[in-house]
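Worked example 3 (structure in, sequence out).
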């Protein structure tokens, strides 16, 4: 009951991991001139997840007569590949694949003298599908606004077992959808690619999953306690992006 992961989920996790590594090497052959309308460019993105209490994603406390559990706002990171296609001079569609690692610092306290801090880690994969609207501020500077959705994949449940208690996170579903929104600034060069700094919010349509504490003193059923709560899965992030320019095509010389 503590681990509902199946062989299929583990295979999906491996396939997605290898896909991210494969995509990271695609842009190495795509360096060159500035892209134009109708063209596709590749890039990568790194996000630093910022602990925040926005949209009910703040600190959570679970208590009973003898136990106190404190779940702090998560932190972590996300990285992956982005593919951008320009439909017009102002509108662009982006997609890609990201690996996301989130860490929930959890403190367990018991009146019998237990006071321990654990970091509960959760791995997921995100496939963003988002529209980008950019506004030119200068010759090479643009402001970007992005809105879209993300398909979030959770390969397995998470179980952390201690001497007398355990933490369990069970996702609501192994695949979920979330709303994405971000704003930032992009500096475009003609030969060295595009550089982007911004911030974003990622919030699921509904709860991400359930968090459970199971306490079993002295490894027996004499004092078995279960506390639970919902996890929203919402997070803020600071984002860095880099896009490779298209490689300029050389004209062949005609020799008579």
């Amino acid at each position: 009951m503590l681990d509902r992961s199946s062989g299929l989920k583990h295979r999906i996790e491996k396939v997605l991991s290898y896909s991210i590594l494969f995509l990271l090497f695609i842009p190495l052959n795509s360096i060159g001139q500035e892209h134009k309308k109708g063209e596709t460019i590749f890039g990568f993105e790194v996000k630093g997840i910022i602990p925040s209490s926005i949209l009910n994603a703040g600190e959570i406390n679970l208590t009973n007569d003898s136990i106190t559990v404190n779940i702090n706002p998560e932190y972590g990171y996300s990285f992956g590949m982005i593919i951008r296609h320009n439909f017009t001079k102002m509108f662009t569609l982006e997609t890609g694949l990201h690996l996301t690692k989130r860490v929930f610092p959890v403190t367990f306290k018991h009146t019998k003298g237990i006071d321990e801090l654990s970091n509960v880690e959760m791995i997921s994969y995100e496939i963003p599908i988002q529209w980008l609207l950019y506004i030119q501020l200068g010759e090479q500077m643009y402001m970007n606004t992005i809105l879209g959705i993300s398909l979030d994949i959770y390969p397995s449940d998470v179980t952390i077992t201690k001497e007398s208690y355990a933490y369990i996170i069970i996702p609501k579903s192994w695949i979920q959808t979330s709303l994405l929104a971000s704003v930032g600034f992009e500096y475009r060069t003609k030969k060295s690619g595009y550089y982007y700094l911004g911030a974003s919010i990622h919030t699921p349509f509904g709860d991400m999953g359930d968090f459970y504490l199971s306490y079993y003193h002295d490894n027996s059923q004499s004092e078995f306690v279960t506390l639970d709560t919902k996890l929203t899965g919402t997070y803020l992030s600071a984002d860095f992006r880099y896009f490779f320019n298209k490689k300029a095509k050389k004209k062949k010389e005609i020799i008579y």
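Notes: The chain has one domain: 7-29+38-243. The chain is about 5% helix and 60% strand.
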